[in-house]
Design goal:
Layout lengths: L6 H24 L5 E8 L22 H6 L9 E10 L6 H15 L6 E5 L5 H11 L6 E4 L12 H12 L9 E5 L2 E4 L4 E2 L8 E2 L7 E3 L4 E3 L24 E5 L7 H8 L4 E6 L10 H9 L3 E6 L14 H4 L2 E2 L5 H12 L5 H10 L1
Parallel strand pairs: 1-2, 1-3, 3-4, 4-5, 11-12, 12-13, 13-14
Antiparallel strand pairs: 5-6, 6-9, 7-8, 9-10
């Protein structure tokens, strides 16, 4: 025999049912993000401050600590469980080989931990592209590593640091970034470490990959990839810095009209193991400098022909007989990145043919 249920009791039962169904959704929405991201701070403009809200040049870099950087972007808590470490506090023009080795070792240690899903590195923009490429060659993990900076200090109107940092953590926490190599997050864009470069002294859109193209965009709290580099990186490279405490001395010599060999000879005399010649055009070698480059090579110094123009392939045996001179060409790497690859190459071999292979591989 059924018992009649009053309309009031029925309404109460329905309400309880709705609350029970809604409770898991509420708990899910309130749950902490599953990704764990560590932010390694090194200084730079993103950690800088100016005298006024309109100071966008002439500010002081590297004054704000990592805890304040994180606290200034509370939205990070919606993206990942974030921890911060202050590795350095420097303007990036002071970045050194020793800094790179320390940073890379810390990144590799963190990424080997099961409770770290990705790493973000805050960095000054002046040498950000160099640090990114160095890490791209020596990080031994498929987990995301993202470098980020700012073109304006945090005290400026329309400061770009907070949104850049948010996007960087979003990227480091994403599955889409796994296996893509070291990335750079700037100005709502995703760039690959090998090919990105700083193109403007002060504007927020400074970081670009002019010819080969950026990898993707940020939109609606999500990274979107459209390209990926075909060059080997991270776990697929042959470089191991785990036991290194120094890198071979490699210097850059710039080509220009009426150039002379004074700077080149001084660097070789100071112990350079390799020279990147940032030549005009397709890496051309002026007649005044060629004899000194040839002599340096005969002394065992590795010579890499690069180009100051910033884009395009430096053709082997194009503007010089590289086979006869026993020189290496930089492929599409700009001079500052060619220096990084040559330093790492010299930790493995001094054979120019093998080093040329590396320039075509990475």
């Amino acid at each position: 025999m059924s018992v009649p249920i009053s309309s009031r009791v029925l309404s109460a039962l329905c309400a309880l049912t709705l609350l029970a169904c809604a409770a898991p959704a509420v708990r899910a929405a309130d749950a902490a993000p599953s990704a764990h991201v560590t932010i390694l701070a090194t200084g730079g403009t993103i950690a800088g401050s100016g005298a006024t809200s309109t100071t966008t040049v002439g500010y002081t870099a590297a004054t704000v600590g990592v805890d304040r950087l994180i606290a200034a972007v509370p939205e990070l808590a919606k993206v990942a469980q974030v921890k911060g470490e202050q590795v350095f506090q420097i303007a990036s023009e002071n970045m050194s080989n020793e800094h790179w080795l320390t940073l890379a070792k810390r990144v590799n240690t963190l990424l080997a931990q099961s409770d770290v899903d990705g790493v973000v590195i805050t960095h000054g923009t002046d040498t950000l592209e160099e640090t990114a490429y160095f890490l791209d060659l020596v990080v031994k993990s498929r987990k995301p590593v993202v470098l980020v900076g700012a073109m304006r200090p945090g005290t400026a109107l329309s400061a770009d640091g907070p949104i850049n940092l948010y996007n960087a953590v979003l990227l480091a926490a994403s599955q889409e970034a796994v296996g893509k190599g070291v990335l750079v997050a700037m100005n709502d864009q995703i760039h690959g470490a090998r090919d990105v470069t700083k193109t403007n002294t002060s504007t927020p859109d400074s970081f670009k990959t002019p010819e080969l193209g950026m990898l993707g965009y940020f939109q609606g709290n999500k990274p979107y990839f459209y390209h990926a580099s075909t060059r080997k990186h991270t776990i697929d490279t042959e470089f191991d810095i785990s036991k290194l405490d120094a890198l071979p001395q490699v210097d850059i010599v710039y080509g220009y009209a009426n150039v002379n060999p004074v700077a080149l000879n001084a660097l070789v005399g100071a112990g350079a193991k390799g020279i990147i010649h940032a030549g005009v055009g397709d890496g051309s070698l002026a007649s005044k400098v060629l004899p000194s480059l040839t002599a340096a090579r005969k002394q065992g110094v590795l010579i890499v022909r690069s180009a100051r123009v910033g884009q395009g392939i430096v053709a082997r045996n194009g503007e010089a007989n590289d086979d006869e001179l026993d020189f290496v060409v930089s492929d599409t790497l700009n001079p500052q990145k060619a220096r990084i690859l040559l330093m790492l190459a010299l930790t493995k071999t001094s054979d120019s043919k093998d080093i040329q292979r590396m320039f075509y591989t990475y």
